Fold:
Amino acid sequence: MSAKEKGLRFERELIDLLWECGFAAVRVAGSGVSSFPCPDIIASNGKITFAFEVKSRSKLPLYLDEREVKDLAMFSTLFGAKPYIALRLLRMKWKFVELEKLEKTSKGYRIDENIFSLAPDLEEITGKSFQLRLL
Amino acid sequence: MSAKEKGLRFERELIDLLWECGFAAVRVAGSGVSSFPCPDIIASNGKITFAFEVKSRSKLPLYLDEREVKDLAMFSTLFGAKPYIALRLLRMKWKFVELEKLEKTSKGYRIDENIFSLAPDLEEITGKSFQLRLL
Structure:
């Protein structure tokens, strides 16, 4: 399976999970090639709206281009969406990293084990879980 | 140019116009083939959110499947978007028909000359025009 097919499979997996949580979710066409900044997935339940940049990796750290993060932030501000890096680590459940939680590097941003472990899961960002997170 | 290429060209044209009006606009991937109902274009400026089913025709009337209209209504209710049939008639500017303005037929819905002429344009739906419409 190519990297592109794998990416698509994970995007579809997240879209399925979002619909199960009561969110209307779509994959954005031409994400990464469009002349306008756009995320990989947009979802809303009419109250909360999300814009996701989707990443799947076998291990951390994950590095992000500065451009990619700035585009997601810019799109989300205009659209009125909450931006997240949606990260699917091999054999782990989805985690959602807020842009302000990313670690700045000289060339862009980084997500390490520590940031990953503190990031909320799908239940937490969609408000399905009210469990206290003991940080 | 194939019908598909033509459709894509008009969708891109509408997306450009929406960005010019201050809306973040995206084309939805897999519209029409996805297992979930989804529109062709979603756009928002953080205050107003639109879901568009895009149609281009050389002449009227335009016929719509009942399924297509119901899917757009269902998606928009969940997403919190205002649904429109975005219609680009040959050599005319874009017009946006609200679902409640569609004429019911035995198999679905219809847009005729009368409905088209009364439909708002882009300036009107995005709030750029405050001109009184004398109906």
